[in-house]
Amino acid sequence: MQTLVKPTKPILQEVSGRKNNLDIHQYVFVNHYCYERFVHWYAKYFPYLVVIHTMIFMVASSFWFKFPGTSSKIDIFVTILGKCFDSPWTTRALSEVSEERGEEKLVNWRRNTISKDPPERQADDDETVVLLRSASVKSNSEKKSMELQSAASVLDKKEGEQAKALFEKVKKFRTHVEEADILYVMYVLQTSLKVFKFLIIIIYTAVLVPNIEIVVRCYVPPELTGFDIFCCNHNKAHLFSKLAYCYICFVGVFGLLCIYTLYWQFHRPLKEYSFEQVRLETGINDIPDVKNDFAFLLHLVDQYDALYSKRFAVFLSEVSESHLYQLNLNYEWTAKKLRSRLTKNAKNQLELHLLMLPGLPDTVFEITEVESLKLEQVKNVTIPASVAKLESLRELSLIFCPAKLHLPALNHLKAHLKVLCLDFESLDEIPMWMYTLQSLEELHLNGPLTNELSKSASLDSLRELRALRVLSLRSNLTKIPPSVVDVALQLQHFCIYNEGVKLQAFSSLKKLTNIVSLELVGCELERIPSAVFSLNNLQELDLKENKLSTVEEILSLQHCRRLVTLKLWHNKIAYIPEHISKLHTLEMLDISWNKLRKLPSRLFYCTKLRHLDVSHNQLTSLPPEVGILQGLQFFSAAFNSLEALPEELFSCKRLKTLALGNNCLSYLSSRVSSLVQLVRLEVKGNRLESLPVEIGECPLLSLSGLIAEDNLLDLMPSDVRSRLTSSS
C-alpha cells in the first residue's frame, strides 16, 4: 500500500518521497483499518451476496420438488408418464385407430364421389354402396380375427396386464390430482418470488456497483501513526467490478425468463387442459379434458415435448381401456374354457351362462353350437357382427346387462332370435333395438316399466314384433301398458308378475282376442277381472298370490268355452260356489294354499278334471262325489285336517299320484289296491299305525314312490316290500 502523508499542522510543509519511519506492523494495521472502515460493504461482501442469491434461486426453483405435498405428485406423474410413453399398448392403440380412420376416409370419399354422380346412375350407385358396406363389414371382421391371432406377437399377456395396471394408476392419479391446485399455486408463488428477487438484485446491484473502487481514501487517527489520511489500493476491486457487471447480465437473462414464465402462467388457462387436438389427430374421441393440477402438469409436459401428452392421452380413454380389457378377456376366456361351461337348460338347450365379467369375450362367438346365451351383470357389452357365426342361437338373456349392437349383429338377430329375456333397473336400460326384432316369439321383461315423471307404464310401440307369441312382464304396474295392444292379435301367452302392487285397469285385456294363457300373479286382485270373461280362446288362467276371498263370479268363466286350466292358488278363498260345475271343459284345478273348510259336491261334476290340487287348506273331509272323477290322474289333499277318506276316492282308477301327507288319517283303506295306475302315494305325517298289505297289489307303485314313515315301511310284510322293491 502506498501512502501519501499530510502534516497534522498547517505550519508544517508536506513531505513527499521521504521516509516516514513507519513500522511494517503499522502498515498492516492501517491496511486492515481502512478495509474495515472505509471499503464499501458491497465491495467486501459481493462474493457472499452472489452465493446467497444463487442459493435462494436454487431453493425457490426446486422447492416444489422437495415439499411433500407437491413432490410426491410430481414423482408419481413422471413415473407414470414414462411408463405410458414406453408401453406397447400405446403404440397398438394409436395404430388401430389410424387403420380405422383410414377405412372411414375411404368410405367418406366413396360417398362424396357417389353424391356427385348424375341421377340416372343412382340405382347402380346404391348397389355399389351396399356392396361397399358389406365388404367393409367383412374386412373388419377378418381384420379383427387376424389381430386376435397375432395379438401374442404384438402384445403378450404380461404386457396386457401391465397396461391394465397403468390404466388403474392413471385413473386413481387423475382422481387424486384433479381435486386440488397446490402444484399450480406453488409454481406461481416460487416464480413470483424469483421475479421479485430478480428485481431487487438488479436494482441494488446497479446502484452499488460503482462503489467498488480501486483506490480507497481513508482517515486514520493521527495519534496512531502521526498521519491522518491514507490512500489505499483495493487490489480485487477491478475483478469484483467486472464480475458484478457479468452477474447483472446473467441475473437479467434469468429474470427475463422468470418474467416470461409468470406471463405464461397468467396469460394462458393452465388449470384447464383440452385434448381436442389429440382427439382430432388420433381419432380417439372419448379422451376427457382435465383440470387443476393435472392440467397444469400436462401443460408443463407440452413445453418439453407434446408427444408425451399425446401418448399419455391413450390411457385416459375409456374406449382404449375397454379394448385392452377385451384383449385380456380373450386371453383369459378361451374357446375351450367357454365350452366347458356349456350346460343344458330347462328347455333342453345348450346354454352358456357368463356371470359378472368385465366384458364379453370375442371367443364366445366361436362356440357355434350354443343355443342360449345368458349374460348376467356383464359390463360394457357390445355384440359385434361375428354373432352371425352362432347359427344355432335362438335365446338371449341379458340380466342387468345393458348391451349395444353393431348393425350387422342387429340384422342377424332380427332374422334368427326367438326368445329375449331382459332384467333391468330402470326404464332407460331397455335397448331400442328390442323393438325391431321381427322374428322374436317370446319377450320376458323384468324391471320397472315406469319413469319418475309418470306413474303409468311406458313401453315403446311393439308393432314390429310381428312374430311375438309370449309376453311376460315382471314389474310394479298399476295398469297394463297400452303398447300391449299392438300385438293383441298374435299374442297367445300374456303374463304379469306384479310383486304385490294392485293392478287396476283391465280394459286392454278385452282386445287380446287370441290369448290362450293369461297369468295375473301378485296383482292384489280381490275379484276375477270381468274382462277375462270375454276371452273366448282362453285355455289357461292363473291368478296366483292375489287377495281373492270369494269367487262368486266364477260362473262367468263358462263363457271361456275352451278353459282347461284354472289356478286360484295362494289366495284367501274360503268358499267355492256350487256353480263351478258349469265349467265343463276344466281339466286342471288348483285351489291350494287357501282357507277352504269344505269342498262343494258340485265341484266333482267337472267330469273332465285330471288334475285337482286342494292341498294347504283347512279341509276336514272330502265329499263322496269325488268318485265321479273317473279321469282324475293327480289328486293332492296334503296339509289339511282330513280324518278319513271316502271309499269312493279309490274308484278313481286312473289316479297316478295321490298326495295325502300331513293330515290326521288313522286308517288307509284296503281298496287302495284298485288304483292300478298309482305311481306315487304320499301318506307321511299322518296317524297311521300300519299300511294295508293290499298296497303291494298296486302294480306300478314302487318303494321309492311310497312316501311314508320308516317305521311303517318296516312293519310291512317282507313279501310286500320285495314286491314294491321289484316294481322299482
TrEMBL record:
Say if the entry is tagged with keyword Disulfide bond: yes
Q: Which residues form the LRRC8 pannexin-like TM region domain?
A: 9-262
> Could you tell me the Gene Ontology terms of the biological process aspect for this record?
monoatomic ion transmembrane transport
- Where does the record say this protein resides? Cell membrane
Q: How does it sit in the membrane?
A: Multi-pass membrane protein
| Any one GO cellular component localisation term in the record | plasma membrane
Family matches, as SUPFAM superfamilies:
L domain-like
Q: Could you list the residue ranges that cross the membrane? A: 45-65, 244-264
Q: Which UniProt keywords apply?
A: Cell membrane, Disulfide bond, Ion channel, Ion transport, Leucine-rich repeat, Membrane, Repeat, Transmembrane, Transmembrane helix, Transport
Can the keyword Ion transport be found in this entry's annotation? yes
Q: What is this protein called?
A: Volume-regulated anion channel subunit LRRC8C isoform X2
- Origin organism of this chain? Gymnodraco acuticeps (Antarctic dragonfish)
